[in-house]
Amino acid sequence: MSHRSDVPHPSEMPRPNDVPHPSEMPRPSTADSTTPAPPLHMPGSAPGRSWAAVRARLEREGHVVVTATWGEWLTAALTDPALRPLLGRDWQRYRRTENAVARYRFVTSRMLVKHTAAAVLDTDPAALELAYRIGGRPFLRGFDQLDVSLSHTGDLLVVAVSRTGRIGVDAEPVDREIPFGVLGRRMCTPAEAALLAGLTPELQARGLLRLWTLKEAYTKALGQGMRLGFTEFGFGDDGTPVTADGSPAPGGAWAFTTHPVLDGRYLVSTACQDTGLDPARDLTARTMLDPEFTGAVRTARDREPGGPPRRAL
Amino acid sequence: MNRPPVTTPRPGRPEGGAPLLAAAQQRAARLEALLGDPRDPANPHSSAALAAADTRGAPPEPTEALLGEAGVGAECVPVAAGGLFTRADLLLAALRPVFRRDLALGLGAAPLAAAAPVWAVGDARQRRRTAQLLLNGGRLAVVTGELAHANALTRGGPSAHRARDGWILHGRKDLVRDAHRAGAWVVHARTAPGRSVFLLEPGLLPADAVRTLPGAPASGLRGTPLSALEFTHCPLPADTLLGRPGQGTALALRTFQLDRCLVAGAAVAAAETVLRLAAHTVFAGRDTRTVRRRHTALAPLFADLLACDSMATVALRALSLPAGRTPLTTAALSQVVLDVLRENLEDLIGVLGTHGHTPGSAHAVRDKLARDLPHASLGHTGTAACHAVIVPQLRGLAAHSWFRGAAPPPALFRTGADLPELKHRLPPAADGGDLLSAALLSSAERLAHVPRADGARTVLAALARAFTGELHELRRRCTALPDAFDPAAVVLSDRFALLQGAAAVLGVWEGQDGTDAFLAEPAWAVLALSRLARRLGITAPAPPEDCVTQVLDELARRGRSDRDCALDGGAPTY
């Protein structure tokens, strides 16, 4: 989705300690640990313990990143008798995509989003509608307790979900080179460029790819409608975004993470917002309608002379 | 089932709408003049001064004092109780200058939702005390009950049980806005059965049974600080109860409804400031060709703001209609307004870039509103409560109301037209009717007869047809909903809300009397409705290029001359 095929790439993998420090994000149960947890790999749709890990991570940390390869989900997608209702309004787009690989990536990424969301909301994936904002940002219609972002490149699928605010995720293959020339300068703030200029080509490339994925993730989190120029904001040493003139970047408190995934073949960065509301940890669909409100509405509805017969929800 | 049309306002009421609107606008002009130029650094009520208070997490004291002296507290006291309140849309019109400057300042000065239970079911003494408090510039805090999927702002709360000569209140609410400086608290408490609401005056409670503690620092609406309120087996006299025991859920629903509409209207006013500043920044000194070439991205945001203003205005005006249909309409419209505004504030980051971030700049005002908005809207908890109002009605609406009900009175959509006063008595929460879907069908029917040659109107007609088609689809899917809770109903509730939004936009466009030539033209409605169609993911015609240009040119005109960028369109009066 965020895939920019014109971007080439560094030869060496960023180590986990290159990862920016998570900033203002509340992380109650990981207070003792400064390293953000790596993405969870979900090689299929079988229910069970693995989804419990996704739910637990989301409850504990406020967001979770799930990875898979499209190959791991393809059989499940193609043999799912309910694929059409599952894809819903994406069905036509799926059918229209002529390139087979693109079609498989499309269908499996939608499977991964819906199964992840359904596991968290404790509902049937086909009951959910994956819709798109005008700028292209995907969202789960009606369920704003979850913000979602997805990215795919090569054989990798990544889905990020958050309950604390906007989230954006971006993935790039580590062997994609971003030359520290014209392109590099076009995506860096002067401060970033100055920092990178003093490094060896290897470290430069590594740093550039990290910056690229972080910037992609952040602009995706802010909405993809009108992209913020990559030189409009940069990442300081502490990992917090700052604008080119040094003021804090818009959008409130953010946490950023970068991780290697799939045996280090890809780099995944996540930008996660915290709107400061400390939202409910219970995200399930069935508990979201206030029972007293629905009760009062139903009582009033049924009291109405000539109104509809009494019924449950 | 066929329903009689909603009673239209009786003509010739002495306190009729137009004079009332003029009076509210006069009060607004006075406030605007008192608050002065927000960009003047020497003005103690400037954007920069309000932002500085917000940064400190402290109330902007000079501005609050000014509002107190101006008698703003009277705005949410009903006329019958000695105040100025007649209708929710007029409250917003009168306080617009405050909301334009700071959401927290306005919401704190006009605690309509907090006071609503008192006006709805309070006895003579309770009404008198509350009126006195607000008329004298005092503050009223509300301890809301916990809602499903509660966040930090709504979590927890006390419960009450009966004692020999009253009640015992026990428990804690962590975050209560303005609790430490309020002259009275309206407390929603769990009781058996259900919930009950109490009106408490802190000074009359035993000091050792109540504690007000500093709350956690907030990340939004920082001008009205949060406190924790802790009751320890606090005895309450019987006469602190508002209404009857167990009436709390109905009162909470009403409180939520009023709060939600007011927040939506206030958020539109605040977002107008951001768009106006952005337009001024982007357009000042640039010629029309440059604007058209480089800044078309602002046109849809302007159309959306006009749409949000239409929806919020219709929601606030719907509160004056006598039937119990309004919770459905207000829940839907407020939800769409708050969602669209949040999205557009994010889009503005891309338009503005990040340079020029100085106090009082479009960037700074945008950032502050983006922080405030989730706190005012309550985020997911607020949306979920809206779904809780809509979802139980969907199947009944599909079976009995859609394509059968009567359209609302045209006055609902005409901002200058007369409406009955808002009745604070508790209305039935739902009566199975749906005003706006009927209005949508009427609009579509009228538009079906426009001549083909009229380009923009033809597109508008096609959009109205697309929304009508979606209502058919919605009926099909809602009819198929099972008895038990089905998560698909929440998805349909969201789709329903967008259709209500489309109906409000069409209604407000049709309700234009031609005074404002731009609003009377279909361009803005075409652009706004095509965006609502895209939000629904339905197939609809794209807006013609000249519609976009017309909307953009109007924004440029308003931006250059510093005119209001919402429906009002007026020039500043300071």
What is the H level of CATH, i.e. the homologous superfamily of chain A? 4'-phosphopantetheinyl transferase domain
Poorly predicted runs of chain A: 1-33, 305-313
* CATH structural class of chain A: Alpha Beta
CATH superfamily of the domain at 142-244 in chain B: Butyryl-CoA Dehydrogenase, subunit A, domain 2
Q: Please, what is the oligomeric state?
A: heterodimer
- Order of secondary-structure elements of chain A: EHEHHHHEEEEEHHHEEEEH
Strand segment tally of chain B? 8
What are the segments of chain B in which pLDDT stays under 50 over at least 5 consecutive residues? 1-17
GO molecular function, one term (chain B): flavin adenine dinucleotide binding
InterPro entries (chain B): Acyl-CoA_Oxase/DH_mid-dom_sf (IPR046373), AcylCo_DH-like_C (IPR036250), AcylCoA_DH/ox_N_sf (IPR037069), AcylCoA_DH/oxidase_NM_dom_sf (IPR009100)
Biased composition (Low complexity) (chain B): 43-58
Organism (chain B): Streptomyces finlayi
Walkthrough of the structure:
The complex is a heterodimer of chains A (about 325) and B (about 575). Chain A has about 325 residues and is α+β, with helices and mostly antiparallel strands. Chain A has one domain (about 15-305): 4'-phosphopantetheinyl transferase domain (Ribosomal Protein L22, Chain A), CATH 3.90.470. Chain A is built from nine helices and eleven strands. Chain A has helices at about 50-60, 70-80, 85, 90-95, 100-120, 180-185, 190-195, 200-220, 290-305, and strands at about 40, 65-70, 130, 140, 145-155, 155-160, 165-175, 235, 240-245, 255-260, 265-275. In chain A, the strands form four sheets. Chain A has a four-stranded mixed β-sheet with strand order 1-2-6-5. A three-stranded antiparallel β-sheet of chain A has the order 7-11-10. A two-stranded antiparallel sheet of chain A has the order 3-4. In chain A, helix 2 (about 70-80) crosses helix 5 (about 100-120). The longest helix of chain A has 22 residues, at about 100-120. Chain B is of the alpha+beta class. Chain B has a domain at about 140-245: Butyryl-CoA Dehydrogenase, subunit A, domain 2. Helices cover about 55% and strands about 10% of the residues of chain B. Chain B has helices at about 15-35, 45-55, 60-70, 90-100, 105-110, 110-120, 125-135, 250-285, 290-295, 300-320, 325-350, 360-375, 380-400, 435-445, 455-480, 485-510, 515-520, 525-535, 545-560; strands at about 140-145, 160-165, 165-175, 185-190, 195-200, 210-215, 225-235, 240. Chain B has a four-stranded mixed β-sheet, with helices on one face. Chain B has a four-stranded antiparallel β-sheet with strand order 2-3-7-6, with no helix packed on it. In chain B, helix 8 runs parallel beside helix 11, helix 10 (about 300-320) crosses helix 18 (about 525-535) and helix 13 (about 380-400) crosses helix 15 (about 455-480). The termini of chain B are far apart. Mean pLDDT of chain B is about 90; it is low at about 1-15. Classes of the chains: A alpha+beta (about 325), B alpha+beta (about 575). The interface between A and B is large, with 70 and 80 residues.
